[in-house]
Design goal:
CATH architecture of one domain: 3-Layer(aba) Sandwich
Shape: elongated
Order of helices and strands: EHEHEHEHEHEEHEEEHEEHEHHHHH
Distance between the termini: 77 Å
Strand order of the largest sheet: 3-2-1-4-5-6-11
CATH class of one domain: Alpha Beta
Length: about 350
Amino acid sequence: MTDLPAGTAPRSVLVTGASTFLGGYLVSRLAENPDIERIVAVDSRVPSKTLMRRMGRADFLRLDIRRPAIARALAGYDVDTVVHAAPSIMDAAGHSAAIKELNVVGSMQVYAACQRTPSVKRVILRSTAMIYGASSADPAYFREGTPARREPKRGYGRDMLDVEGYARGLARRRQDIDVTILRPQAILGPRIATRMSSYLSMPMVPVVFGHQARLQFLHEEDALGALEWATTRGTPGTFNLAGDGVVTLAQAVHRAGHVQLPVPPQLLSPLVGVLRDGRLPSIRAEQEGFLSFGRVLDTTRMREELGFHPRYTTRETLDDFIERGNTSPVVSEDAWRRLQQRAVSAATAIQ
């Protein structure tokens, strides 16, 4: 098998995490591409019937990426491109030991299989902006080469720091493999379920007293578009992904028509659990930092080197989530406008 030049569509693609929103819908998009001969969808869980139908001509393999069977799949299907979308942020109990094992051990097994398979020439990793952490010492914008001032010590961010390291190790050992690492900002959309979507859907949203987090969002369609773009274009490197613009947490809550509940940092996690009736796992230390300080990415490389341009800005992503997602305002827009007018009138009268 010859090298797979950048900009050339792959011939045989294997996607891990096929039962997840991003993995499954990426498979469905790739299945519609006539230039790709074969698509292999892999997961230890069977996708929903709806998602399975959307996968079309793709072959689904139910296997655990922590097991040697992943190497046999790569060789058996003569795979030249691997999209590793399986790393997970949580299960019902939060970031459990099983999730950490899937993320870290599973990724090690995938990369080891890629290294032993001569046909593999392109690897795409869906990482996360959480690897930068979040603290008061952060720069205004994180560039891909900016080290985290306070690296995540545990949780999903820590997992992905390790997983990224293994991916770069693969690139050093197999220099004929192009490795692309994508670091998406918080993903929102009307269909995808994330911690942020669950958090912003609460009618009363606990926020850290005295802090104003600066946020960026990436629309679910742009997250899928970036994965598809990287899969078919094959530009190696590490790239931040986010929509243009920044909103504060207060603005996000306000636009959703919900009510802020300022609390001390130590009460954030228990209150979120109570107000969501246990449906949102406890907020961990890394999420507390994010909801206190936020995180903003520099996306110059995404545009100039990767060549990807999101369709949605941060604000448009938020508005689409509010309009079409599973959330409804506690206070209507007209009511907010009347309250604002009353506040302005009262302030004018006092002056």
